[in-house]
């Protein structure tokens, strides 16, 4: 890092990189950061900025102009040396159909199993846990959602999500004075779910709480089937559950799938293709302009 002439509080760094797809972060005050105003993705190093260099870099001018004020808090990458790929102003209908076809093929030929991380943990909560304790566990484990296990039925019966937390706070605000401290401490997740069904009119012909089956997927379901389940059932998370028996007994929780996880899987596959391309291309090919991939 070197100071910008005329701006003692502003520093610049000049980097020379080859054409290709690059990821970067900013190291500021002992902390790695990213610029949320630039293209970014979530990867193995957290949220990182990305850029695709499509030509040989010209001599790099100063990143920051000396004429700018000295107290600058934004993080910038020189737009002349590094040109971010932007979507074309006009996309033909044929290009749209080709992209849709590529995405459909990808989702149809890849399975939910590919969403599973190489290592990690999955946590399920017993439906008989007190609600207060259940949310404490979610907070301590740093997870927003957890499937619910009913040991009596021997199966997963639902999920506990931030939406439940918001609804519980709202109900406590409306009727909290009618509950004793002991009732607040012992109110179970199962009791809350039944009360939630009554609250939203999810009852059968006899007026009893009606619990719809848990929306879940198997590890060998295609990503297309998984995405359709998420969209059609209007849910944010779908548990990936595997059972070695045909009747579904002894289910094993493998993963919690989301649309963002599916998109990340697609991104990683595209990144691997780009990495292979730049690794195996000749020097001549490396200098050819490279735009965007259709898949």
UniProtKB/TrEMBL annotation:
Gene Ontology CC, one term: chloroplast
Against SUPFAM superfamilies, the record matches this protein to:
CBS-domain pair, E set domains
Instruction: Spell out the Pfam families in the cross-references.
Output: AMPK1_CBM, CBS
Q: Which PROSITE patterns does the protein's record reference?
A: CBS
Tagged with keyword RNA-binding: no
Query: The organism sits in which domain of life?
Result: Eukaryota
- Keywords annotated in UniProt: CBS domain, Repeat
Q: PANTHER family given for it? A: AMP-ACTIVATED PROTEIN KINASE, GAMMA REGULATORY SUBUNIT, LD22662P
State what protein this is by name.
Sucrose nonfermenting 4-like protein isoform X2
């Amino acid at each position: 890092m070197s100071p910008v002439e005329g701006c003692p509080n502003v520093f610049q760094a000049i980097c020379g990189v080859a054409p290709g797809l690059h990821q970067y972060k900013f190291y500021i005050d002992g902390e790695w950061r990213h610029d949320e105003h630039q293209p970014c993705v979530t990867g193995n190093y957290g949220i990182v900025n990305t850029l695709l260099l499509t030509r040989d870099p010209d001599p790099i001018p100063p990143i920051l102009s000396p004429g700018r004020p000295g107290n600058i808090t934004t993080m910038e990458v020189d737009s002349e040396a590094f040109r971010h790929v932007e979507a074309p102003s006009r996309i033909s209908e044929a290009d749209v159909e080709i992209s849709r076809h590529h995405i459909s093929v990808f989702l149809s030929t890849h399975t939910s199993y590919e969403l599973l991380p190489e290592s990690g943990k999955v946590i399920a909560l017993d439906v008989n846990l007190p609600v207060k304790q259940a949310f404490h566990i979610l907070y301590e484990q740093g997870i927003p959602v957890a499937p619910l296990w009913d040991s009596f039925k021997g199966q997963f019966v639902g999920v506990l999500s931030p939406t439940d937390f918001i609804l519980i706070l709202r109900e406590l605000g409306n009727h909290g004075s009618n509950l004793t401290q002991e009732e607040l401490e012992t109110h179970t997740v199962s009791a809350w779910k039944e009360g939630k069904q009554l609250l939203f009119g999810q009852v059968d012909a006899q007026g009893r709480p009606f619990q719809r089956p848990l929306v879940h997927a198997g590890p060998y379901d295609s990503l297309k089937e998984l995405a359709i389940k998420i969209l059609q059932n209007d849910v944010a998370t779908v548990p990936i559950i595997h059972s070695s028996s045909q009747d579904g007994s002894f289910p094993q929780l493998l993963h919690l799938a989301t649309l963002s996880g599916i998109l990340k899987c697609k991104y990683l596959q595209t990144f691997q293709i780009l990495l292979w391309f730049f690794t195996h291309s000749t020097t001549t090919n490396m200098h050819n302009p490279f735009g965007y991939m259709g898949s």
